[in-house]
Amino acid sequence: MSRHRHFVGIGGIGMSALARLLLARGERVSGCDVLETPLIARLRVEGAQIAIGHHAAHLGDADSVIVSSAIDRQNPEIVQARRLGLPIVHRGELLAELLDERDGIAICGTHGKTTTTAMTHAVLRAGGIDAGLALGGIDIALDTNAWPPAAAWFVTEADESDGSFMRLHPRIAVLTNVENDHLASDDELPALAESLAAFLAGLPRAGVAIVGLDDPRCAQLLAGLRTVRTRTFGLAVRADVRAERIRCENFKTTFDAVVDGCRLGSITLPLPGVINVRNALAALTVGGELGIPFARMAYGLETFLGVRRRFEVLFAGERMSVVDDYAHHPTAVRETIAAARAVHAGPLLVAFQPHRYTRTAYLAPDFAHALRGADAIYLAPIYAASEEPITGVDVHTVGDPLERAGGRVSYVTQVDDLVDRLIRDAPQGALVLMLGAGNISDVAAALATQLRAQVQAPV
Q1: Is 115 a catalytic site residue?
Q2: 428: exposed, middle or buried (C-beta count within 10 Å: 0-12, 13-18, 19+)?
Q3: The model's pTM
Q4: Each residue of 401-417: b (16+ CB within 10 Å) or e?
Q5: Where do the H-state alpha helices sit in 72-226?
Q6: How many C-beta atoms surround the C-beta of residue 264 within 10 A?
Q7: What pLDDT band is residue 35 in, cutting at 50, 70 and 90?
Q8: What value, to the nearest 5°, has the Cα angle with vertex 16 and ends 14 and 21?
Q9: What share of the chain in percent tops pLDDT 90?
Q10: DSSP for residue 394
Q11: Which one from 113, 120, 156, 331 is the annotated catalytic residue?
Q12: Half-sphere exposure of 299 (CA within 13 A, CB side)
């Protein structure tokens, strides 16, 4: 009889990936979440039994319960699991279980994990390696966030936000960068860097640590990795795998790939910006470790369709173009705006929905600085996620310093108001970036739908 695992919060992007992998290998999967979503509907089609809402009875005859750090430990299903003596397994433990069965490739870092993971999987597929995948987003080409492995390799994101990456034991680990995304203060950064260093130092003798050399904290961390073989990537001249002659045009980026001082050829990514060049360099480095020929890796990157909500062009027209992006940290916001500037010469508008009160309070000056790169900024109320409001912290915490710095700022009362506001305000030929980790993505889709309807309407 197959195992029966119950997921509390099964609709989360990371939890749903794990559920899909278990379903693919014939396990029984049930779960619950608070809202009906397209992702949950897809999981039901794939065989999961899912209830909306939380209740002790939802456990049924489950033999273990899967949770994430976002779940309240007083959740009635967790309380019932404790009462029944069922194992309560963190999603990081389950991911480690799946990874231990394969040769793991773990992608960690503050920014770029999802795109780098998807690019790496695309490179492996192009090289004939049908690796497993657990992704923090929907790979557009695969139309899923999980892929059951046929080959020995398994590619996954390694989440630093709750320390669960320390449970993983990959053969190859990639570190993109180290910043202050999920931290309460800069005082916590050294501890995060030490944890990442320990993670890399724990790789097996046959393993390799692949580190982004352009990030100063990563460069510092390299000095302590004396017992592990390392490879570096980036734009720095000292990087083992680097890019030269970067050119951006028509939402694409072309660069020359240089490996160990040898220029191997040119690659055109179907994505804009230096941030995606760095992601591609990391994927090239992994592929090189697996012996994939450069031509195959280049093909994998050039045909890469991207990940949902990572500079996803929802609509492109003469009136305006709409891009949906998950950027919710100042560095990601700044680099996404820079990527847009590199491919669009016209007006650039940004609609931004801050994510979490703690992050907004802590990083408000950095957000204000990052958003100044846009011609006009529209700020929506903070998306709380699982947090309680903090007195004195609201969207003006970002907007006020942005206005004092000369930013052209507008506010909306509800995030849904952005559709009418942007259609009314955006000049002809504008590129509109819809940024944030909350439900602004739904608004971006609604805006694109309305613009598409206007184009199709009879004159």
Answers
A1: no
A2: exposed
A3: 0.90
A4: bbeeeebebeebeebee
A5: 76-84, 91-100, 113-126, 189-201, 216-222
A6: 18
A7: confident
A8: 100
A9: 78
A10: S
A11: 113
A12: 10
pLDDT digits (tens, 9 = 90+) for 423-456: 999 999 999 999 999 899 999 999 999 999 887 7
Q: Which domains does the chain have, with CATH numbers?
A: 4-89 (3.40.50.720), 102-302 (3.40.1190.10), 312-456 (3.90.190.20)
106-152 pLDDT per residue, tens: 999 888 899 999 999 999 999 999 999 999 999 999 999 999 999 99
Q: Is 252 a catalytic residue?
A: no
Matching residue, tokens 């630093």: 160
Q: What is the DSSP letter of 307?
A: B
HEC string of 336-367?
Answer: HHHHHHHHCCCCEEEEECCECHHHHHHHHHHH
Q: Which residue has the tokens 């180290």?
A: 178
Angle between helices 440-456 and 418-425 (to 10 degrees): 50
Place of tokens 């305000």: 425
Cα 253 to Cα 301: distance, rounded to the nearest angstrom: 11
Nearest to 276 by CA among 254, 259, 308, 303: 254
Q: Confirm whether 114 is a catalytic residue.
A: yes
- CB of 234 within 8 A of CB of 281? yes
Please say if the pLDDT value at position 181 is more than 80: no
User: Active site residue: 77, 157, 179, 312, which one?
Assistant: 157
In three-state secondary structure terms, 247 is strand
In angstroms, rounded to a whole number, what is the distance separating the alpha carbons of residues 284 and 271? 16
